[in-house]
């Protein structure tokens, strides 16, 4: 006689209660902050830089979508790895996380410099879309006198 599956699992579909031990909690526990992966930090950096630029250029960037992908789809025959692509007809900017993170030659590899690298790629991609110099996007941000 074949064993039948427990009806308990079908009574609560989609439940994560394994073996009656309760619902799983975060790996870090209730007293520590949640873990942030490199992908999460990258997404947050892109979102904050894009939000900053959308506040500065509301008319020009109102319909622009910012997307994050791991890698570019096709190989470039010249051997150049794209960090971003701009599709002006669709008002879309795609930033490629792995080339930006792994091909950066930072003089100091810490959280601040990695974030600055990500933000500079966002600025350069937006500048390419708008046909401007990246330094002209937020000139007051870089004047410290």
TrEMBL record:
Residues 1-28 are annotated as: Disordered. It comes from the Bacteria. SUPFAM superfamilies: Metalloproteases ('zincins'), catalytic domain. Residues 1-13 have a biased composition (Low complexity). This is Zinicin-like metallopeptidase. It comes from Homoserinimonas aerilata.
